[in-house]
């Protein structure tokens, strides 16, 4: 079924917790069909929210019971193993990054036959919906999304005499110099102007802004063309020559959001997930958001999204569809996204919640119109791991950027050839 070449064998499945949502039963009532739903770990607040949404679904569908399973570690390895063994749940989360491979393997149920006109498919953001199409067939319905936006410290801006967020990447670099502080003049930076994330998921728009691509039509790595590396070179130059940017590891933090919250970077590029984290963890932090500055005259950002998909081997497909329909319908989606943990993929829900007018989220919502879906072909691990390793090497000055990217591309394609 899969072309894993043994990679799936012996995958460790650990820390899997199950919870069954309580359902009311009555004498002579029909026996409820149990639909199994799997997703990855989340914060306690998000888990509580999901439990509430599923209980609402059960209340409206008394003949369907949902058994939710949280897979805390190695989620996709677990799901692939279970799909191979015909032991996968009826419905499960599927990240856009992993979707191209699973959609090509004939293990997901096509949803076109279940979708009715009254479901209002046109209400979904088109780019998000298209992310889960394969050969013109819909295999998943996106449950939520986030883009990336520029987060900036308003007090740090005021201290540096900066009134508005940067509009271009060149301006961002100039701002970062002004915002970088070495209070004791001893070479130890107290505050960097910009928190850099060198992972491919945060660098795709730097490649595409200069006409480059990450993968070709055959899912092979294609990011090493030297003429298209200006954006990545700008990142390296800022980090190495201007010393106005830092990675999370440089300042002893675990994420860009933490770096920003602790005041170790005055600007970072993060997603919607950073808003509740910063508000809860750093309640005194005065920050704002803006769209990512233009690069080479182009507006761009990333689109991260997750869909509900149905197992093709499910024995309860009508009930599984009812669950997917509710969770991605207007009512279920509004309940799920109403607290701000995630952004709704339906335009009508976004309008009802007013996120396009929200001071912190409007920049994120604007990005859905021009964002780049986070997908890099059928073999994302080979692409990501080799890019990340070699780009960090270039960032640290261990090798020139063109050499690093050529090595990353060659090694990725060698691995893909073995997998394909």
What is the overall shape? Answer: globular
| Mean pLDDT, all residues | 92
Strand content: 15-25%
DSSP E strands, number: 13
Radius of gyration: 23 Å
Major sheet details: 9 strands, mixed
Low-confidence parts lasting 5 or more residues at pLDDT below 50? 4-25
Helical content stands at: 25-40%
CATH topology descriptor of the largest domain: D-Maltodextrin-Binding Protein, domain 2
Describe this structure as you would to a colleague.
- The protein is an alpha/beta fold and 420 residues long.
- It folds into 2 domains: 16-145 and 305-373, 3-Layer(aba) Sandwich (D-Maltodextrin-Binding Protein, domain 2); 147-302 and 376-419, Periplasmic binding protein-like II (D-Maltodextrin-Binding Protein, domain 2).
- Helices cover 36% and strands 16% of the residues.
- The strands form 3 sheets. Strands 1, 2, 3, 4, 7, 10, 11, 12 and 13 form a 9-stranded mixed sheet that branches.
- Strand 2 (33-40), helix 1 and strand 3 (64-71) form a beta-alpha-beta unit.
- Helix 15 (380-395) packs antiparallel against helix 16.
- The chain is globular.
- The two termini are 13 Å apart.
- It comes from Dulcicalothrix desertica PCC 7102.
């Amino acid at each position: 079924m899969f072309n894993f070449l043994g990679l799936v064998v012996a995958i460790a499945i650990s820390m899997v917790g199950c919870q069954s949502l309580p359902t009311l039963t009555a004498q002579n009532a029909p026996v409820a069909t149990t639909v199994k739903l799997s997703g990855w770990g989340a914060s306690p607040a998000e888990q509580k929210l999901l439990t509430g949404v599923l209980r609402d679904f059960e209340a409206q569908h008394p003949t369907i019971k949902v058994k939710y399973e949280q897979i805390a570690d190695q989620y996709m390895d677990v799901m692939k193993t279970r799909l191979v063994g015909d032991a996968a749940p009826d419905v499960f989360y599927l990240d856009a990054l992993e979707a191209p491979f699973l959609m090509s393997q004939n293990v997901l149920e096509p949803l076109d036959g279940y979708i009715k006109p009254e479901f209002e498919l046109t209400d979904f953001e088109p780019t998000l919906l298209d992310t889960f199409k394969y050969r013109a067939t819909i295999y998943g319905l996106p449950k939520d999304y986030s883009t990336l936006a520029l987060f900036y410290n308003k007090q740090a801006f005021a201290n540096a005499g900066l009134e508005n967020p940067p509009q271009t990447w060149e301006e961002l670099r100039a701002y970062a110099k002004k915002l970088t502080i070495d209070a004791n003049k001893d070479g130890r930076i107290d505050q960097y102007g910009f928190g850099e994330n060198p992972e491919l998921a945060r660098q795709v728009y730097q490649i595409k802004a200069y006409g480059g691509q990450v993968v070709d039509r055959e899912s092979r790595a294609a990011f090493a063309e030297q003429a298209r590396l200006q954006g990545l070179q700008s990142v390296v130059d800022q980090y190495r020559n201007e010393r106005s940017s830092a990675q999370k590891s440089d300042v002893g933090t675990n994420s860009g959001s933490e770096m920003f919250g602790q005041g170790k970077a005055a600007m970072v590029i993060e997603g919607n997930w950073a808003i509740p984290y910063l508000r809860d963890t750093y309640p005194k932090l005065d920050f704002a958001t803006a769209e990512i500055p233009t690069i080479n005259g182009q507006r761009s950002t990333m689109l991260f999204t997750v869909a509900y998909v149905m197992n093709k081997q499910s024995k309860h497909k009508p009930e599984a569809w009812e669950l997917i329909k509710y969770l991605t319908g207007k009512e279920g989606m509004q309940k799920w996204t109403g607290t701000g943990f995630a952004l709704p993929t339906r335009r009508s829900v976004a309008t009802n919640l007013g996120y396009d007018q929200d001071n912190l989220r409007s920049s994120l919502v604007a990005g859905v119109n021009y964002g780049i879906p986070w997908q890099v072909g059928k073999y994302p691990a080979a692409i990501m791991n080799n890019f990340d390793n070699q780009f960090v090497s270039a960032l640290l000055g261990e090798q020139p950027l063109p050499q690093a990217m050529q090595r990353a591309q060659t090694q990725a394609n060698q691995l893909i050839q073995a997998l394909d």
